[in-house]
Amino acid sequence: xxxxxxxxxxxxxxxxxxxxSALTAATVSLGSGAASAATSPAAGSALLxxxxxxxxxxxxxxxxxEKATRDATIIQSFGYxxxxxxxxxxxxxxxxxxxxxxxxxxxxxxxxxxxxLTITQWDMTGNILGYMYLRGFGHGMSLGVEPxxxxxxxxxxxxxxxxxxxxxxxxxxxRFPFVNGQVLDSTSSTLATYTxxxxxxxxxxxxxxxxxxxxxxxxxxxxxxxxxxxDLDLARLDIWSEPLASISEPDITAIPGWPLATYGHPSxxxxxxxxxxxxxxxxxxxxxxxxxxxxxxxxSQPNVGNTFITSVDLxxxxxxxxxxxxxxxxxxxxxxxxxxxxxxxxxxxxxxxIPDLAQPGVFSIGMGFASGPSGxxxxxIYGKAGLIQPS
Length: 391
Prior knowledge:
five-stranded antiparallel β-sheet; 6 helices; about 10% helix; globular
């Protein structure tokens, strides 16, 4: 099998979504149905063919720096509509707003607890084009963007459940069209809702725009964080019985030699899937401390941070390339200094960008960052474009 063949997206790829057939599929799937039980293959899967892999060591370039979103809270995730050249960003709705159907303004604490989200639509340079408000959805840790004609359908978590830390997380998935200015409730009949894995919790989703797949991150009945990858056409139709991959999330701090006293346990901040590989983003805002061996340690030093990007082989569930032992920060996971001069700098989300629609197999990965003072947060995206072809 030649590299040209491996690079070619299947019929469910980005290019296929721009036609009339995509509009028809989107129309018939808007509506909730009974979820099919997902059968998990053995750890990993041989169903994913070789595909290009992001070169983690490639340069991180400034794509969009410190732009405003609809609300002034920290972004949680973002995604690209590569067909229509838009970027969508998710954040918890700011306090002090009174939305349609509300009798009074709502505090930020209540927005967090209820799972209210704000979606901002940007152009490709970070100018605001539109927005939506979502009530009762979750925290917005991941955002799937599916181009449909001249607009997009968004995949998010939904049916938020409050947590003890004052935030909330969605228990299911939802798919709905972006409608500028709309206030959408989790109970709306216009939502298509899904439970890919029965009994799972904290479900989120992301789109692989190159190969036409839906990646689902969830907690299983034992609380283990897992991923499944599904054909997007089947997922849209609520068919989850044929996952292409199923793995547990690897713990990056379990690597022998991980410098715990320097970087601590960086918080999980987002993921993306392209072909055979899962990419994860970890890190914390500058100044974040963690108690390690009885001492409070600053694990994200100003102008250094503890932001890491990691690549995982979905066929095995292992980090690929495998890190050496003892760990070195210049391989995988890779410590990135992207946007290190930001004042606050908290990593928030990964997005898959396709620069040239005529070459959908040539992709880049964008890394999101929040910055700015509390109450006036801004969003930044730096990207990596280097690819390593399968051998």
